[in-house]
Amino acid sequence: MSGDLLKKICFPLSSNVEKYLRKYNRIIDLPLSYESLLRYKDSFPLGNSLWISVMYNHDDFDEINKGLCYIYSLLKTDGDVSVIEHLRVDRIDFCLFGNSNPFRIRIINNFNDNYDYFYVKKTDVSRVLGLEMEDILSPNRINYFINDNTLIEEHISGIPGDDFLKSEINHPKTNKTRLAKEFIKFNERSFYTLLGDMRSYNYVIEMTHDFDDVQYRIRSIDFDQQCYEGRKNFYLPQFFKENNPLVKLSLEMLNERSINQYQIEERSRLVRRIKHSHKILEDLFKTMEKEKLSKPEKIVQLANELSIHHKDEAFKDCKNMIEILRLNLHHLNKS
């Protein structure tokens, strides 16, 4: 883990960002806050992970259980409380790693023991930008909402990337060509949308069975490093050593023409999404260009490196991360 990640600054939401979020129904009154969950009295580690399971005194937990079940109903049924009568909080986990220090809530159905998860995190303008970009431009939709300094985010199902690369990538039933194709597209998507730090533990891999084989999709589960870092390669998953098995697989399974084809396919899809969602995307950019998303030296560094990469001196005139992002997306039509 580099020192840069440990020092990542969390920028608070301004009234300007809150206005945007309210316009698109992302702000909802909540019965409890992120700070409410910090009142735990005891904890124990979850295996060898960076997560701990936390426990509360009886009175606090009654309030927390009720509030979290209601929040889950907001995520799933727009607040229809009739669905929460048979639900309860089975476990609350807390992550000691990263910038958001999330709580992971496990909700269980008392009728059939089926369970689901969602997350309670601290708000940060970079994370909000990343979630919006994911919802607008990626092939994936994501549901989240905010109240003051509390972010509620739905669980994204899939096999954690690091686990997949240990146990599934060499499985005889894994379609390595399709997996390599998806990694090429994910790499392209992360770069042009400036979503950074896509190491294997920051994404999951979805496996969908169709009528003759398995399709794969790589989905980010971490948006903390959206438009923050200054190094160009930080936005290219191919350069993280944690992803080396996927890089090696792609080079083994795909020739140069196929790789180029899949890159063009993903750029074309991004262009279509930009055209289709032009109004909301422009609203988002106008909102975020007024916000502090990174440090001045990182903005200069990224502008210079992208100027070299795209052979475009216009990057050097960019004054903030949103101007860089706009210009980077503009190059989708030139690549």
Summary?
The protein has helices at 3-6, 15-23, 34-37, 58-77, 125-137, 161-167, 176-193, 244-253, 256-276, 278-288, 296-310, 321-330; strands spanning 42-45, 51-55, 87-95, 103-109, 115-122, 144-147, 150-154, 159-160, 203-209, 214-220. The chain has 335 residues and is an alpha+beta fold. Strand 4 and strand 5 form a beta hairpin.
Which runs of at least 5 residues are low in confidence (pLDDT < 50)? 1-5
Q: Give helix and strand order, one letter per element, not per position.
A: HHHEEHEEEHEEEHHEEHHHHH
Percent range for β-strand residues: 15-25%
Characterize the overall form.
globular
Give the termini separation.
32 Å
Structure description:
The protein has 335 residues and is of the alpha+beta class. The chain has two domains: 152 residues, no CATH class; 175 residues, Phosphatidylinositol 3-kinase Catalytic Subunit, Chain A, Domain 5 (Orthogonal Bundle), CATH 1.10.1070. 42% of the residues lie in helices and 17% in strands. It is built from twelve helices and ten strands. The strands form two sheets. It has a seven-stranded antiparallel beta sheet with strand order 1-2-3-4-5-7-6. Helix 7 crosses helix 8 and helix 7 crosses helix 9. The longest helix is centred in the last third of the chain and has 21 residues. It is globular. The two termini are 32 Å apart. The N terminus is likely disordered.
